[in-house]
Amino acid sequence: MTAQDTVTAAMLAIGDELLSGRTRDKNIGHAAHMLTLSGIDLKEVRIVPDEEAEIAAAVNALRSRYTYVLTSGGIGPTHDDITADAVSAAFGLPCIHDAKALELLAAMYERRGMEFTETRKRMARMPQGAEHIPNPVSTAPGFRIGNVYVMAGVPQVFEAMLDHVLPTLAHGRKMLSVAVTSPYGEGEIGLRLAAIQKAHPETSIGSYPRFGGNGVFTTELIVRARDETALEAAAADVRAMIEAIRQEKEASPA
Amino acid sequence: MTAQDTVTAAMLAIGDELLSGRTRDKNIGHAAHMLTLSGIDLKEVRIVPDEEAEIAAAVNALRSRYTYVLTSGGIGPTHDDITADAVSAAFGLPCIHDAKALELLAAMYERRGMEFTETRKRMARMPQGAEHIPNPVSTAPGFRIGNVYVMAGVPQVFEAMLDHVLPTLAHGRKMLSVAVTSPYGEGEIGLRLAAIQKAHPETSIGSYPRFGGNGVFTTELIVRARDETALEAAAADVRAMIEAIRQEKEASPA
């Protein structure tokens, strides 16, 4: 939990249903928002199918590049839930029935008067040596191994697990941002905006066109910086640019 | 447009705003749905930031593995719109102002009585030799180079471009699917479902837990196959499994 300048993360969403279009992913957008709030830069997202080799290859590609990797999906009890196997394979560790997870699950099914079937026991599987990520919603834990955090795909459970994980992560210096709405399209502001970006290299200025439907584009400009003075200086230049364009248009209407 | 058994695709969504959580992506889910309808298997999705090296590396990783690569985002006129540069770099081609695109854009701005600025001319940039993807919404074209289809990030424009592209792609034999809702959670059906999957290797049975909020999970089961007879046989077994569980529960209530 030191405040380094940059802490990075990648997210890996796992599941055929996301790739077939049956399910629209909700976890990526949520994680992106929460990581940004935490001062962690989400640098890459991948969605892969329920195939062990694909999941393991993505885990290995991402864990070597980024401070943290968050995964969602594939930790339920059925035959297509193979994330525990794939992550174990990626780390070269045996995938075992974790004793503490078996206990938690056994107690929960006991309380509910339900049989603790072989299928349900699959939810206790994780790489040997993994640490639990608690699941306050439905008991079956996620797990952490190395810098990889394996969480559920059901959004209520994913969000609860992420809430638990975030305070345990190192966080970077928080990225600050200011939004400025330009009534002018990107084509009218682009050159001047590029000059402003060049003059403020310690900021990152994003430009996002919005199509109004009446044939007119407006632009949402987002200035980002970790330093507040740098942020305000760049934002002031952006506002001045918009005011200058307004005055020019008044002086010589199209 | 031959009907091969399997045609694959990957999608690459480009943009800092997707990774910061400011914008929730709408194009991935739409593309997944439309590709599935077209009999094309979406096998992988990546989201990368507005960084040329990252975009180029992802384009190269994906175009060598899949039949098609669709990209969204980063083809507007501003300094952070660098998809044309990155895709050109990936193919080792010069990024040029395409003559036909310049003509289209010049005519559009002429009609609208607007100046065709240097900034706006950036929207005509693409790798030398690329083919246009028409943009009926706001003129600035996307482009195809090799098996990579570069489209806009604004959803209305992305969708219009994709509508144009899809009929030009080879399509696989369409994947058929049947949905069966199980009132029982994955823990109760998992073992039997795994046996059904094993007995029907030419199908793919997905199992998706839904959390009802009252502490009860139900399960959405999706049986998929390219062959209708195989599909129906597996789906019949799934329905019989649910009926068998129901009868067992009636016989010995918990």
From TrEMBL, chains A, B:
Pfam families: FLAD1_M, MoCF_biosynth. It comes from the Bacteria. Residues 10-172 form the MoaB/Mog domain. SMART domains: MoCF_biosynth. InterPro entries: CinA, FLAD1_M, MoaB/Mog-like_dom_sf, MoaB/Mog_dom. This is Competence/damage-inducible protein A.
